[in-house]
Write a structure and sequence with these properties.
Elements (H helix, E strand, L loop, with lengths): L3 H6 L5 E2 L5 H6 L12 H5 L1 H14 L3 E3 L7 H6 L4 H37 L20 E6 L2 H5 L13 H17 L4 E7 L2 H13 L6 E5 L13 H9 L4 E7 L6 H9 L6 E4 L5 E3 L4 E3 L5 H11 L3 E2 L7 H11 L2
Parallel strand pairs: 1-10, 2-3, 3-4, 4-5, 5-6, 6-7, 7-10
Antiparallel strand pairs: 8-9
Helix pairs in contact: 4-6, 4-13, 6-8, 8-9, 10-11, 12-13
Length: 333
């Protein structure tokens, strides 16, 4: 039986993923300078969370990712929530993405009705291509599963130098995965993984909790051949190639100039779809928590990643709905 990614890619050459969430919240005036990072918005500004998801859908995203990257029971409890409240917030993160999808689908139906009426009169200038989706092809919701280092909020998600073993990583992810599954996402986005033991731990956690939701596994990378802790990306792809739970394998939160080589390295090890969503091309300074440099032409870069073999393409830090609209413009032409 095909998983939902395989089903969609059987009829679409490319699936368009959404872009950055935390930096998009910042662009709209919401501070994420907190140990919870973007997860703070789940309880402070759920309306804004929903709006960001909705704007990515309007830009043409086929998949939106929940605001749960840095959401953990432990993190919410440190903020003063009870364990029950914390668990509900994790579930809520997925529900907000699903609500945004529902709103978008209602808008699409209204526009399809409008398009039909205007077509009969020979004019349909108001209908955007991203809103012309056939019934039964609604966008997908992926629950974000951030790495252990995101919970630590110490930058170790980009190093992978955790002071815990694989058993501890499995225990850390297991209950959170079960809560995210309660939100009924279509997919799990196991992302920004800096080390192979964490990917193995997530696979173990999925099996322990008997979670049968297709997952993609994407790694943060230091160059065109290695993930953040120095492990070759080829080793990660080789391991996940034999993992039924892994519906796609790829790279995120990585500089754009490395993406083509990383795609090729993954494709040499597996036939599974490759997912890529790099950063904008700007550099982040951890010392002053600011971005420097110039963003790349993201839509043009995305064409090269498609040509190298990526099938699911979006953006990570500092990308926006405009960047996703640029990808959708050629991917859905």
């Amino acid at each position: 039986m095909l998983n939902i990614i395989e089903e969609r890619l059987a009829v679409s050459n490319i699936l368009v993923l959404d872009g950055a969430f935390a930096t998009e919240l910042e662009a709209r005036g919401f501070s994420v300078n907190d140990a919870l990072w973007s997860a703070k918005a789940i309880f402070e500004r759920p309306d804004l969370v929903r709006d960001v998801h909705l704007d990515y859908l309007r830009a043409g995203a086929d998949i939106v990712t929940s605001a749960s990257y840095q959401a953990t029971v432990e993190g919410f409890v440190k903020k003063g929530f009870t364990e029950e409240q914390a668990a509900a917030l994790i579930v809520r993160s997925v529900e907000l993405a699903r609500e945004a999808r529902d709103i978008y689908c209602l808008e699409s139906l209204a526009d399809e009705y409008h398009a039909h009426e205007e077509f009969t009169r020979g004019s349909c200038e108001r209908c955007a291509p991203a809103q012309r989706r056939s019934l039964g092809e609604e966008p997908l919701v992926a629950a974000s599963v951030g790495p252990y280092g995101a919970y630590l909020a110490d930058g170790s998600e980009y190093r992978g130098d955790y002071d815990v073993d694989e058993d501890a990583l499995t225990a850390f992810h297991a209950d959170r995965l079960a809560l995210l599954a309660e939100g009924q996402p279509d997919l799990l986005a196991c992302e920004t993984l800096p080390c192979l033991p964490e990917a193995r731990a997530i696979v173990r956690a999925l099996r322990e909790k008997k979670i049968h939701i297709p997952a993609w596994f994407s790694f943060s990378c230091r160059d065109g051949a290695h993930i953040s802790d120095g492990t070759p990306i080829a080793d990660c792809a080789r391991f996940l190639a034999g993992v039924p739970e892994a519906a796609a394998i790829g790279v995120n939160c990585t500089a754009p100039q490395y993406i083509e080589d990383l795609i090729r390295a993954i494709r040499r090890e597996t036939d599974k779809p490759v997912v890529v969503y790099p950063n904008s091309g700007e550099d982040y300074s951890a010392s002053d928590k600011s971005w420097h440099g110039t963003a790349e032409d993201f839509a043009a870069g995305a064409r090269r990643w498609r040509d190298a073999g990526a099938r699911i393409i979006g953006g990570c830090c500092r990308t926006s709905p405009r960047d996703i609209a640029g990808i959708a413009a050629w991917a859905k032409a």
